[in-house]
Design goal:
Layout: H1 3-18, E1 37-45, E2 55-60, E3 66-70, E4 76-81, E5 84-90, E6 96-100, E7 105-107, E8 112-113, E9 118-122
Parallel strand pairs: 1-8, 1-9
Antiparallel strand pairs: 1-4, 2-3, 2-5, 5-7, 6-9
Length: about 120
């Protein structure tokens, strides 16, 4: 048998034996992986200036577990969290108060919950 034909036969034999459907995770007794959702928004002042390097925290309503991130140079943030209900907080500094804050949010697997924005008023 010529070399090319032999190689083709070997490759076909390997391909047909190694391409099997995997066993679903649930069938192996393992828990399926939870897909996180994403909370996103911005932190701005009431004069529409971006508030940078500010800690934004999501607190799970049922467990109190906390997830946090920091705003970027545009004042925006994104936060990956497991499915659940969350209360959002932003770090305030002296002379600041919130004039707008998002309410609680429900996150499901693979959700994107944008527009969870904060507006800070400087009261000095």
């Amino acid at each position: 048998m010529p070399f090319r034909l032999t190689l083709l036969v070997v490759l076909l034999a390997l391909g047909s034996t190694s391409c099997r459907t995997g066993i679903p995770i649930a069938d192996r007794g393992e828990k399926p992986l939870t897909q996180d959702g994403t909370i996103a928004g911005y932190v701005r002042t009431d004069s529409d200036a971006a508030v940078v390097t500010r800690v934004v925290r999501a607190v799970a309503v049922s467990t109190g577990q906390k997830f946090e991130t920091t705003t970027n140079s545009a004042g925006t943030y994104t936060l990956k969290v497991p499915p659940g209900r969350y209360r959002l907080e932003v770090e305030l500094r002296g002379g600041e108060r919130l004039s707008k804050e998002p309410g609680e949010t429900q996150i499901n697997a693979s959700d994107l919950d944008p527009g969870r924005n904060f507006v800070i008023t400087i009261t000095r």
